[in-house]
Amino acid sequence: MTWFWVALALLLAVALPLWPYGKECGLQLFFYLGAAALALLAGAAGAISSWATHRGVAHTLSLLVIIWTGVMGAREVLPRIGYADESKAWLCPAVPEPLPPARETSPAPVAP
């Protein structure tokens, strides 16, 4: 089971920088952070399993995954909690509703 957890964690960690969707705000951001948390948990499971079975390479890889996913998650979280110079929002701003089309008024008929 050790190598399963390590391989899963590695695959998820490699996929994080290749995330194909936007992660600026809203639901897409929360999905990205969920994927980062899942990679972190898989790395932790790999680290615990590899420590118990005395597999040094697997343990090192798991620890690298934990550090990497922590960095990738922090890149998105820290600007939103006020740590960075440029702050970002958790939720996307509401899109204003479009204005109704203006009614064209025809000029009043001129009497002869």
Word description of this protein:
- The structure is a single chain.
- This protein is mainly α and 112 residues long.
- It has one domain (2-80).
- 56% of the residues lie in helices and 0% in strands.
- It has helices spanning 2-15, 26-52, 56-77.
- Helix 1 (2-15) runs antiparallel to helix 2 (26-52) and helix 1 runs parallel beside helix 3 (56-77).
- The longest helix is centred in the middle third of the chain and has 27 residues, at 26-52.
- It is rod-shaped, with a radius of gyration of 25 Å.
Q: Assembly type of the shown chains? A: single chain
Indicate the structural class. Answer: mainly alpha
| Strand segment count | 0
**Element-level helix/strand string:** HHH
Low-confidence stretches: none
Give Rg in angstroms. 25 Å
Question: What is the helical fraction, as a range of percent?
Answer: 55-70%
Counting DSSP H or I runs of 4 or more residues, the number of helices is: 3
- Strand proportion, as a percent range, falls in under 5%
Biggest pleated-sheet summary: none
Shape: rod-shaped
Number of domains: 1
Distance between the terminal alpha carbons, to the nearest Å?
96 Å
Mean pLDDT: 90
Give me some keywords for this one:
112 residues; 56% helix; single chain
Summarize the structure.
Helix 1 (2-15) runs parallel beside helix 3.
